[in-house]
């Protein structure tokens, strides 16, 4: 059996957007019967929230769509992630810049680093806006954008695994 495809979602704090993407995508992977073939994780470029569960607003918005985030805990991106993961997918351009800068200091970096929106149909190449300092509607927008990109990402990986 081919090694699993490894996907890491990255935002700033790893408490709002990237854990939402982590929860949404792992649910789609499970529903597609691809547990074990696709591994999913998330991390933040910042270190403020290490060890914390996702923001309660993100957890509630995801739960309303049948997505569980409760078991997730924030961690910071580390250099080895760029060697371990096949895809490292940034929520916005600032996260993307930070990852590309990190990659320049990791000689063995092999991950494909891209904007999550590059897999989206409806929100092609758009950043997922940071919802942290806004209201509840921001978390709905985050999920709308993530769900659309997750569909495109799953299709791309299914082609790769076929
Ligand atoms: P996230 O949201 O990057 O989607 O997890 C944020 C969470 C915390 C902060 C910023 C963004 N913060 O500044 O603490």
What share of the residues lie within helices?
25-40%
Gyration radius (Cα, Å) is 14 Å
Bound molecules: 4-nitrophenyl phosphate
Determine the N-to-C terminus distance.
Answer: 12 Å
The average pLDDT value, as a whole number, equals 97
Please tell me what the overall shape is: globular
Feature tags:
single chain; 162 residues; 5 helices; 4 strands; binds 4-nitrophenyl phosphate
Description:
- By secondary structure, the protein is of the alpha/beta class.
- It is 40% helix and 14% strand.
- 42% of the residues are buried.
- It is globular and about 40 Å long.
- Helix 1 links the parallel strand 1 and strand 2.
- The model has no long low-confidence stretch (mean pLDDT 97).
- The site of 4-nitrophenyl phosphate has 11 residues, from loops.
Describe the protein's topology.
Elements: E1 5-11, H1 17-31, E2 38-44, H2 56-63, H3 81-84, E3 87-90, H4 93-103, E4 112-115, H5 136-161
Parallel strand pairs: 1-2, 1-3, 3-4
Helix pairs in contact: 1-5, 2-5
The protein binds 4-nitrophenyl phosphate (4NP).
4-nitrophenyl phosphate binds at residues 11-17, 44, 48, 130, 132.
Q: What can be said about this structure in brief?
A:
With 162 residues, the protein is an alpha/beta fold.
